[in-house]
Design goal:
The structure is a homodimer of 386-residue chains. Chain A has 14 helices and twelve strands. With 386 residues, chain A is α/β, with parallel strands linked by helices. The first copy, chain A, has a ten-stranded mixed beta sheet, sandwiched between helices. In chain A, β11 and β12 form a beta hairpin. The longest helix of chain A has 16 residues. The radius of gyration of chain A is 19 Å and the shape is globular. Chain A starts with a strand and ends with a strand. At the A-B interface, α2, α3, β3, α4 and α10 of A face α2, α3, β3, α4 and α10 of B.
Chain lengths: 386, 386
């Protein structure tokens, strides 16, 4: 197994509502930014892995060859990977494996989603393809609903409060103010969150991540190749994956996502580190409760203390462990297939002095955590500044 | 890189029109058959890669965790891979890479599609998501149309005839008579093909592969692990991938799929063999012309002589090189995401004395060729009887 490095990353067009760009165009722009930032030529790319979840939205599956063609390298093999909201990190995982194994030396990972041009009901329906259609969606469940059930369980068992969840949203909106590519640049208060309309109690509008259009791209390569282009290496030192029963009714415990615990354990073991060694983490806050649960399952706080940790400011950029300095899914945005790749871009930017006022001071080790549905797929990756 | 072995394969329920089975059920049955034939327990499986193209048909994306749950191993990480009609072989590829790299020792690959419950127009629309929506589908192109364009080009340049194409169909229907899991068990004549209704000239109904429901599964593992369960090893000795401009209008030549040539070259090089060493091949005959083009691009016949080769019987089971002994997409059926995995199952059955009257006598080396759309993705794999 060879050491694997993230050579560069790019977001391309700002996440949010793309009025004029199609998915393929946005994807190509993000890819070109990553290629330029790496200082390489497209023809040096040997394979492309694409994270893309909602092909229905643009009636375009099999998007890999289209992106390759837009980059002028149509003969490069591509692969679209779909694991619902974890599609981007699953694509990154296969890039990691292929480079580590010596199959390829230079791989492009692209994540992309274009969804705001369709109406919200249709978009919600398409999103729900990522959950269990038979046992969940067909019975009326949507993602806000199932995460609301998890929130209620967490409140009942641990006393987590609506205010604590609101504070996740406030923090992530604050961080996003300093992220020029974030969907939202809007400072909000706890009051704003609590007074926003109820989507699925206890989750209010401002507890929910948005539908975003967006893309993200990274170049994954070997240590040897990367050294020719930069002295500032970002190593991938851990990678873990796991699943859990897709349908919520089949699970024993709604206050934890077991797949996160398992994937994290594997990633920590590979990296040879412990949760306390992580300086910042981009976690999957599709809903505010999801961030609280994630910070517990990843081992940053004891089970049940994630809400209190937010309240005490421990997850702020200058706190014990910065959570979602980018603004997270909540405020940076959630272009499904791009989300997991965007997390890696954030790590690369943080470690390359490009994060501006959202920089986590002195950070050396970072973790990304990306969840498909309510945990059917969880990918955890760990990075070290070289 | 470790040596990689296909330990077992299974089709599960016969391909065709599933009246009562859902995709998830069919996928689980195929997986269980592969697991039983391997003689292993589900808990020994460390990862699952799923080829599945048309999530829309059952409104179920992210199908990996559902299959894992059906097998009683919900915590095993899964990944759905979509590269249109090449989804199954792309999933197989990642299993190969992960085992070769030492990431996993035992991997399950499942391909599945359930599509016959929706009407043909809708199914055709969903299929067309696999081509270029902007430059092809939106302008009225469908798969029969673009392959018809390739057929016309091949006829014009090389004198390939409608009768030669019909003979591909006749051969594959004949082979499928001996495949109990094939969609069609129907002997046909050249006259039947020529007189069947025109779909997109020169392609008639019997030049076209069907919409099939179906699944397929294989267990991919190391030589060391496999030896504990069998003496009859099926090695994966070559793997190649490539793409080409997705939209037909962007290409220089319609008589060849360049991605096939490139993927084959890579696979032959890895395997250390030449086309003449291949004893039989399962190739992507989504339309009869596609088989003729494939046998040329794979190097079995000189360019332009694929039609003549069929006419001379060279591609029959007892010919120079048996092409599609299983019956191929044309007659075995084409359950999109399952097709590429089903090709590997055929190789495994051939090499394990389970192919009955369709057995290719004395075969030692086999090749599989799976195409996404008109070549946006092509995967070629080569196998050797151990």
């Amino acid at each position: 197994m060879r050491k694997v490095v993230v050579l560069s990353g790019g977001i391309g067009p700002r996440w949010g509502r793309w009025e004029k760009l199609t998915g393929r165009e946005g994807a190509a722009l993000a890819a070109k930014e990553a290629i330029e930032r790496a200082g390489i030529e497209p023809r040096q790319i040997q394979a492309i892995f694409v994270g893309n979840a909602l092909a229905e939205a643009e009636k375009q599956g099999h998007i890999g060859p289209i992106i390759a063609t837009e980059l002028g390298i149509p003969e490069v093999p591509t692969m679209r990977i779909e694991t619902a909201c974890a599609s981007g990190s699953s694509a990154f995982r296969e890039a990691f494996v292929n480079v580590a194994a010596g199959i390829y030396d230079v791989v492009l990972v692209v994540g992309v989603e274009k969804v705001t041009h369709i109406d919200v009901i249709t978009a919600t329906t398409y999103f729900a393809y990522g959950m269990d259609q038979v046992y969940e969606a067909r019975n009326g469940a949507s993602f806000p609903g199932v995460y609301a059930a998890m929130a209620v369980a967490h409140m009942n068992k641990y006393g987590t409060t609506e205010e604590q969840m609101a504070l996740v949203s406030v923090k992530n909106h604050t961080n996003a103010l300093h992220n020029p590519k974030a969907h939202f640049h809007k400072k909000i208060t706890v009051e704003d969150v609590l007074k926003s309309r109820v989507i699925a109690w206890p989750l209010k509008l401002y507890d929910c991540s948005p539908f975003s259009d967006g893309a993200a791209a990274v170049i994954v390569t070997t240590e040897e190749f990367a050294r020719k282009y930069t002295d500032n290496l970002v190593y991938v030192i851990g990678s873990g994956r796991a699943g859990v029963q897709m349908a919520l009714p089949e699970r024993d415990d709604l206050t934890s996502i077991k797949a996160t615990t398992l994937a994290a354990r594997e990633a920590y073991r590979m990296a040879g580190i412990e949760p306390k060694d992580v300086d910042f983490a981009e976690v999957h806050d599709c809903f505010t409760i999801a961030e609280i649960i994630a910070t517990e399952d990843l081992g940053f706080f004891k089970k049940g203390e994630g809400g209190k940790a937010v309240e005490e400011g421990l997850t702020q950029i200058d706190g014990k462990i910065a959570i979602n300095p980018s603004g997270g899914l909540k405020a940076k945005g959630h272009p499904v297939g791009a989300t997991g790749v965007g997390q890696v871009v954030e790590v690369w930017e943080q470690f390359n002095g490009l994060a501006g006022k959202r920089t986590v001071p002195g950070a050396e080790i970072a973790l990304t955590h990306n969840v498909g549905a309510t945990g059917g797929t969880v990918n955890v990756h760990i990075f070290r500044r070289g």
